Predict the 3D structure of the following.
Amino acid sequence: MNTSSKDSFNHLDHWSPAALLEQAAALRERAERGDGAASITLRAFPRHCAMLLVRTSDGLAELHENFADLFYILDGSAALVTGGVIPGAASIGLGELRGSTIEGGVPQELRADDVAHVPAGLPHQMLVAAGQTIICLVMKIQEKP
């Protein structure tokens, strides 16, 4: 593989579901010992990145002003709440807002093999039922400069 900066993205990246689920086992342990979430960046590209995410509890409400989230559910289930508002949202960095909940959002149940696209600017929150886990491939895609 050519690793020069000019050609560093000039090759195929491939992750099988089995390989991702194998990596997710260690993330699940981290999530259960920590705050209910663990992730790794599989690869960062100029305008998007691929991540593996494991959740064992609810996430914070989020809004990314410039990036979309594309979720591919590998295993488990959760409700993805979108829309509405994030009361008392706080900036955690450039174009990134977080809060504890969403008011007025619409839940959509996500299960294995589902794909969900959350466009930039749309509040969203993943809610995981007690005793459940969700494992996702997440593509963070820059939609706005």
